[in-house]
Amino acid sequence: MRTFDPECLRALVAVAHSGSLSAAAQRLYRSQSAVSEQIRKLELACSATLLLRSKRGAELTPAGRTLLGHAQEILDAHERAVLAMQGVDLAGSLRVAVTDYFHPSGIAALLRRLRASHPRLQLHVTVRKSASIEQEADEEPYDLGLSMRILERGATRGTPSGVLRVPLFREPMAWVADPSLQAAAGGALPLVVLPASCAVHRFVARALAARNIEHYVAHCASGVAGLQLAISAGLGVSCLNASALPAGLRPLRSFSGIRLPSLPQVEFALLVPQAGQSALIDEVVPLLAQVLRAAVPMEGDAAHIMV
User: Fold this and answer.
1) pLDDT at residue 305 is higher than 50
2) Is the fold of 92-164+270-305 the same as that of 172-265?
3) Do strands 189-193 and 215-220 pair parallel, antiparallel, or not at all (unpaired)?
């Protein structure tokens, strides 16, 4: 009887989420050849080709997509078994504040997998701006906060006293626009942004003003999902972190002859206001950090995982 090695299944999941063998190898802290060998073993066990490799990365075949669903279920069951044998039973209720800049296309599926893996753990999730998550950490309006911080040169921003900050990963920011976007009359740069209370909006305004680039707000969205739709509709140029870029769009260096400013990286982190005060929180933090890091859709060296 043929069986599947969980580590080989983990490799398949990593390739599917990251889009390439090299990115999966970084995520798994293995060599690319080791990941390739694990995929080969799965293909032998299935008697089917699971991946199509090209210069652009790796794409799952129909057989690969079928196995992917089973692989995630097997790995979730494996994790539950390990926790059970360690005497860890994650049960209780936690308030979680999440920035919607975090992997917008994947956060719902991630929360669904967490619920399936830990049915007795109730997560009450609210989507908030990173600025409020950072500023209100010491007021304890949530138990766990997932925040994004722009690593702007010269900026000094600390974490409130008594709040544990767990860095997860860093990734680049990018200018982006749909190819259908036409230059505005007069040459001013049309922007698609969130409200002025958004840190990215304020950063973009400062960066363009520092380069004397004339601009105006063509569309103001209420959230990142609306921002992505507006960008894809060709309403303007925007600035997003790499994992929030709309599918099919590539980063810009210039638009209509305007050289756009270089951009810093952003850092995602977990904020824990009550670290050391709750056994449940202390047990969930390392688990959630691991899950969030694994969810990063890495492309080559686009993201830097922090451990």
Assistant:
1) no
2) yes
3) parallel
CATH architecture of the domain 172-265 equals 3-Layer(aba) Sandwich (3.40)
Which CATH fold would you assign to the domain 6-85? Arc Repressor Mutant, subunit A (1.10.10)
Average pLDDT over residues 2-17: 85
Give, as one character, the DSSP assignment of residue 252: B
CA distance 193 to 236: 9
Closest by CA position to 148, among listed 133, 135, 137, 138: 133
Integer Cα distance of 103 and 208 in angstroms: 26
How far is the CA of 75 from the CAs of 82, 225, 298, in angstroms?
Answer: 10, 30, 20
Least confident segment among 80-94, 118-132, 134-148, 159-173: 80-94
Residue with tokens 């049915």: 119
Q: What would the mean pLDDT of 92-117 be, rounded to a whole number?
A: 84
pLDDT in tens, 215-245: 999 999 999 999 999 999 999 999 999 888 8
* Best CA proximity match to 305, nearest among 179, 166, 140, 101: 166
Query: 117 CB contacts (<8 Å, ≥6 apart)?
Result: 76, 79, 80
Query: Exposed (0-12), middle (13-18) or buried (19+): which is 161, by Cβ within 10 Å?
Result: exposed
Backbone dihedral angles phi then psi of residue 244, each to the nearest 5 degrees = -105, 5
* Measured distance between the N- and C-terminal CA atoms of the chain, rounded to whole angstroms: 38
Among 126, 105, 11, CA closest to 60: 11
Q: Which residues pair with 98 in a beta bridge?
A: 127, 146
CATH topology of domain 92-164+270-305: D-Maltodextrin-Binding Protein; domain 2 (3.40.190)
- Tokens representing residue 31 in the block: 């060599």
What are phi and psi for residue 227, nearest 5 degrees? -60, -45
Tell me which residue of 285, 287, 292, 284 sits closest to 168, measured CA to CA: 292
Q: What three-state secondary structure class fits 128?
A: coil
Q: Tokens in use for 13? A: 């999941």
